[in-house]
Specification:
Elements (H helix, E strand, L loop, with lengths): L1 E7 L2 H14 L4 E7 L12 H10 L5 E6 L3 H12 L2 H4 L2 E4 L3 H12 L5 H10 L9
Helix pairs in contact: 1-5, 2-3, 5-6
C-alpha cells in the first residue's frame, strides 16, 4: 500500500481531487487531502504544519507520495518533510508532477503494481499527457 497526500491552496480542490482518485482506488492507496491553511475556515493557502500532521497520520505506510499544486505548496511540503522524524521522512517522496493527472496516474498504477519506482515513473509521465491533439 502507498499513501498519497494532495497539497493544494484550497481544501475544496484537494478534496475534489481525492474524490476523483478514490473512484480509481482499489484499496491499495491511502489518499489524504491537505488543502488550505491550519484553520478550517476555507481560507486559501498552505500550511507546513497541516501537511506534516497529515503525513504523520499515515506514518505506518511504507511509501508516501506528496503532490502539490503550485508555488508555496511546494515550499511548505518541503518544510513539512524537514520537520518529520527521520524514520517517517525516509518514506516520503516529493513528486514533481501535475496535481490532478499525477495523483490519478499514481493511484491507477498502484492498483497494478507495488513497485514504487513504477508508480513514481507513471506519475512523472503524466507531465507529458496531451489533452488535445494538434
Amino acid at each position: 500500500m502507498i499513501g498519497i497526500v494532495i497539497v493544494s491552496h484550497s481544501q475544496k480542490v484537494a478534496d475534489g481531487i481525492k474524490e476523483i482518485a478514490e473512484e480509481m482506488n482499489h484499496g491499495k492507496v491511502e489518499i489524504k487531502a491537505a488543502g488550505g491553511v491550519d484553520e478550517d475556515d476555507g481560507r486559501i493557502g498552505t500550511s507546513a504544519f497541516k501537511i506534516k500532521e497529515v503525513i504523520e497520520g499515515i506514518h505506518y505506510i511504507e511509501n508516501i507520495l506528496l503532490f502539490v499544486d503550485m508555488g508555496s505548496a511546494a515550499m511548505n511540503a518541503e518544510m513539512a518533510v524537514e520537520m518529520l522524524d527521520e524514520e517517517i521522512k525516509q518514506k516520503v517522496w516529493l513528486v514533481d508532477a501535475p496535481l490532478v493527472e499525477g495523483v490519478i496516474a499514481a493511484t491507477i498504477q498502484a492498483s497494478i503494481t507495488d513497485s514504487i519506482e513504477d508508480i513514481l515513473a507513471t506519475a512523472m509521465e503524466s507531465r507529458d499527457f496531451q489533452k488535445f491533439s494538434g
